[in-house]
Amino acid sequence: MPSPDRPALILGATSDIALAFARLLAAEGRELILAARDPARLDAACKDLTLRHGVKATALAFDARDPASAGALLDSLPLLPSLVVSFVGWMPPQDETARDPELARAVIESNLLGPAWALEEAARRLAALEGPTAIVGVGSVAGDRGRARNYWYGAAKAGFEAVLSGLRQKYARSRLHVMTVKPGFVATRMTEGMDLPAALTLTPEAQARLMLAALRRGRHVAVHWKWRLVMGVIRLLPEGVFRRMRF
Ligand SMILES: NC(=O)c1ccc[n+]([C@@H]2O[C@H](COP(=O)([O-])OP(=O)(O)OC[C@H]3O[C@@H](n4cnc5c(N)ncnc54)[C@H](OP(=O)(O)O)[C@@H]3O)[C@@H](O)[C@H]2O)c1
Known about the structure:
Shape: globular
Radius of gyration: 18 Å
Number of strands: 9
CATH superfamily: NAD(P)-binding Rossmann-like Domain
CATH class: Alpha Beta
Strand content: 5-15%
CATH architecture: 3-Layer(aba) Sandwich
Order of helices and strands: EHEHEHEHHEHEEEHEHH
Strand order of the largest sheet: 3-2-1-4-5-6-9
Number of domains: 1
Structural class: alpha/beta
Bound molecules: NADP nicotinamide-adenine-dinucleotide phosphate
CATH topology: Rossmann fold
């Protein structure tokens, strides 16, 4: 686990999974820095974390689509975090994305370039610290195989996973741990209104617990066992079969 004497920085902290993860860290007594495009939306969450767990929690501004944002945020902190987690992601409707190159660019920037760049900036700073540190990127099983339903989002998540894999190798000889999280379905704002199979859908709290347990165990990739099975099968399907499937 990353040193407990430094804060954790959570990027994309308005996400339901991010807030559930922040509550778990706060319960362990860890100081939190919650970052989002509109940090005012996090004021209530910060107050609640401090009230319930007695930890310091600060909300700061961060926009993943601004390449200068992560570096500036990290350099503005009085004490560098030992853990940086990116929950940043965005999935607009696929049919709109497939007709609008600016929307496609925004999907790539929001799910790949932005969060990957933020973690690149974080990795360089955290690997130079003395104690154990970690960066965690939340990708998606959607990156495992392009589907008609969400292939622009899936392609960005696949690229994000590749960057995290590269960072893991790059820092293998340092004390920086690099973990990739690949959720399946989670009941959040992103999936609101979708008809998700209950047996394969996690609550934000369950997803957050899975991530923290994986981080404690020093896992490199965190996937729920059911999704590991599902995607294992999906990946093995021959193209001739896969292309005719609708799911
Ligand atoms: N829910 C699922 O079933 C599911 C499945 C697989 C993977 N995931 C991944 O899990 C992560 C969390 O998603 P969620 O389900 O909790 O949905 P969510 O509430 O929509 O969370 C996405 C987060 O990303 C932030 N974000 C988007 N663009 C940003 C930008 N340019 N700069 C900074 N922050 C930005 C959002 O901030 P704003 O509040 O400012 O919009 C929000 O905090 C995402 O990476 C998502 O792709 C979710």
